[in-house]
Specification:
By secondary structure, the protein is α+β, with helices and mostly antiparallel strands. Helices cover 22% and strands 21% of the residues. The chain is rod-shaped.
């Protein structure tokens, strides 16, 4: 048998044509990452200008380039330099002499009153005595000896630490005022 259609019959309808492709829907979001925007340009490193030697240029021109950043950098450098100069002036400033630095030891001849002067080493001593106030750093000690003797004794309770060694003079005056009793 043949596949051919009998003559005189109606032709077979043609096979349906495939539908034209549908237009693609609009792209909503892409999965590809977009490249980041380019980085802002970085300032060029400081380069001396070839037409002038560096020592003839003002401080602003010696800073990194020119423009507002360079001017700000120059001001910051100048401020740091000024602060460093102030610190150096303070650190290197010679010490001011103390207003009333007492001598190493203040001495006064006294006559002990009735009961004498109590000492840490020998107890009570009486008669013609010499009172001495010694300063070592901020420590003050009042000592006593028989007049023209060699040994010194610490007066009981007469040790102190002071903020200012010049205060030793006031301590000495008070000790003399309490212990000197020439009339007995």
């Amino acid at each position: 048998m043949s596949d051919a259609a009998p003559t005189g019959s109606t032709p077979k309808p043609a096979a349906p044509k495939p539908a034209p492709p549908k237009p693609a829907p609009p792209k909503a979001a892409t999965t590809q990452a977009t490249p980041p925007p380019p980085a802002p340009p970085q300032p060029a490193p400081a380069q001396p200008v070839a037409d002038k030697p560096a020592e003839d240029k003002p401080a602003e021109d010696k800073a990194a380039g020119s423009g507002p950043l360079a001017a700000a950098a120059a001001k910051a450098v100048a401020a740091v330099d000024a602060a460093a100069d102030k610190v150096a002036a303070i650190v290197n400033k010679p010490a001011e002499p103390a207003a009333a630095t007492p001598p190493a030891a203040l001495t006064t001849d006294i006559t002990a009153g009735q009961g004498g002067v109590m000492t840490d080493e020998t107890g009570v001593i009486t008669g013609e005595l010499t009172l001495k106030t010694e300063v070592s750093g901020n420590d003050v000690v009042v000592r006593v000896q028989y007049k023209e003797a060699d040994e010194w004794y610490a007066v009981t309770g007469a040790k102190a630490t002071v903020k200012d060694p010049a205060d030793a003079e006031a301590i000495h005056k008070v000790a003399v005022g309490i212990l000197n009793r020439p009339e007995g």
